[in-house]
């Protein structure tokens, strides 16, 4: 939608009006047939149509282009009243600068910045409203450190609030201790299983070494027996030699 033509001071050229809403062009685009539209208006039109609303020539959204520079300059030079005129603002400025003015206008209706407050108030009166707003917050004057809403002043009890916070901290600490305990138990179980596994491996290795030692001792005994047998055979051969 365009700017309400009633807001403008003086004559507005017909070529600067949207061909759809018939208000002064806002964020304008131009078709190849040179008819101009507000961006929102022509986009909405092309959802259901495929032609120009003025001369019915076929157009596509990809063919839309910004206004010619001279038309854009003429548009920006138009003078209009602030949208907050009905609230008391008497500012008249160019279309090019109206958005900047209205963002900062003292007569603009803005929401209260306090959470929970639904009041809409003029920017120039905001400070006064914030001073008395029932949703304004402040630090407890008794020194407990809590931020309280003015509406809760009569209900605020420092001792009760601190006791509640202490209970929450205690519960949180108990939960953290339990979590740490479970984590340590889990780690100990894991280490215990690891140690049992290592012990089993070491035990198997010891048994294997014992088995190897037993085989070696058996081999040594066999060698010693063979050596005795060989020595006896040598002694017997020596006796036989002497007899001969």
TrEMBL record:
Pfam families: zf-C3HC4_2, zf-TRAF. Residues 192-243 form a coiled coil. A zinc finger (TRAF-type) spans 101-144. It comes from the Eukaryota. Keywords: Coiled coil, Ligase, Metal-binding, Zinc, Zinc-finger. Residues 18-56 form the RING-type domain. Residues 101-144 form the TRAF-type domain. The gene is Rnf41_1. It comes from Smutsornis africanus. One of its GO terms (molecular function) is zinc ion binding. The keyword Kinase does not apply. This is RNF41 ligase. One of its GO terms (biological process) is regulation of canonical NF-kappaB signal transduction.
